[in-house]
Amino acid sequence: MLRAIIIWLILVAYIIILCKLFSKQMASSSLYERAVKPSVFMQNTYDFRQNILSDIDPILGLQMIIVALKSGVAITRALDVVGCSLPASKGIWLSRVSKALISGSTWREAWSEPHVCFSKKDKNAYTSLILSTWLKNSLRESWIYGSSPVPVLNAVLQNYEQSMKNVAKKESSKLSVRLLLPVGLCFLPAFIFVGILPTVASFMH
C-alpha cells in the first residue's frame, strides 16, 4: 500500500511539472501570441489585412485596377481613376504615376521618387508599397509591348490567394502538432491511473 501511495505521489508531481513546462512553452510561443495578441502578430507577418487599415488594401486596389482595365481604358486612365476614387488622398500617388507616364516619363521614372514615395516610419504605408510593387512589376510588359495587362494582374491575385492557402495549411499543421501535447498530458496520466495502478495494487495485495 505504501508503494502505491509513493507511485501515486510521483505521478502527481510528474503531471504538475509537465503542466508547468507546457504553460511556459505556450506563454512564449507564437501560438500564444496569435491567440492573445492577434493584431500584434499580424502586423509583423505575412498577412497585412489584419493591420489597422488607414491606408489602401492592396487586394482591393488591385481588383479596382482590374475592373477599370476590363472596361477598356488605358493603363494611365485606370491608375488615375482608381487613385482619385480612394478616400483621404491615399491613392494620390497612382494619379502622379499616371500623369508622369502621360508627360513622357519612362516606366522606371514614373514609379520612383517623387511620384511614388512612402515614408519608412509610416507603418500604414506598407500596404501602399505592396500595391505599388505589384502594379510596377505586373504592368511593365503591357506598357512597353502593348499586351493585355488583365491576365497578368489576375495571375498576381491567384498567386497571392494560393500563397495564403499554403500558409494556412502550414500553420494548421503546426497547430495540430502543438495540440497533441496537452492531449498527451491528459491521456497518459489517465492511462497510468486507470490501467497500471490498479494492476500494481492488485499484485501487491
Topology:
Elements: H1 2-28, H2 30-36, H3 38-43, H4 58-70, H5 75-85, H6 92-102, H7 107-110, H8 126-145, H9 150-204
Overview of this structure, please?
- This protein is mainly alpha-helical and 205 residues long.
- Helix content is 75%, strand content 0%.
- It has helices spanning 2-28, 30-36, 38-43, 58-70, 75-85, 92-102, 107-110, 126-145, 150-204.
- It starts with a helix and ends with a helix.
- The relative contact order is 0.11.
- The model is unreliable at 27-53 (pLDDT under 50).
Order of helices and strands: HHHHHHHHH
Number of helices: 9
Tell me the radius of gyration: 29 Å
Terminal CA distance reads 8 Å
Key features of this structure:
mainly alpha, 205 residues, 9 helices
Write a concise synopsis of the structure shown.
By secondary structure, this protein is an all-alpha fold.
